[in-house]
Amino acid sequence: MAEEVTAEQELKNALWVWTQRTVVALVLFGGGILAAYFAWGDAADLRQHNKELQDQIVDLKNQRETLNTRIAREARDKEVCNRDLAEAKKAAGGGAGAAPAPGSPG
Q1: Using one digit for the tens of pLDDT, what is the confidence trace for 50-78?
Q2: Domain range summary for the chain, segments of one domain joined by +
């Protein structure tokens, strides 16, 4: 004999099924959020690594600026030396009997 299911019982069963599905979906979603937080969450390691890289960039920029300053200073000193050499050649007799400068052809 089959039991008759009333409309009220059918509604309760449908409500119970959807409640179960909702709870399972929320548990799975919450578990995914929790797993993602543990995997990537606060990202303290990434922040520390980023800070180290930023510090390295600043150090390299400072080194580049220092080297550019040294290059400019050396170029200025070279110009001064070349000018002094040219003046010394002129004072030594117009350069006719003077020895050629090192590295110059002739």
Answers
A1: 999 999 999 999 999 999 999 999 999 99
A2: 7-41, 42-89
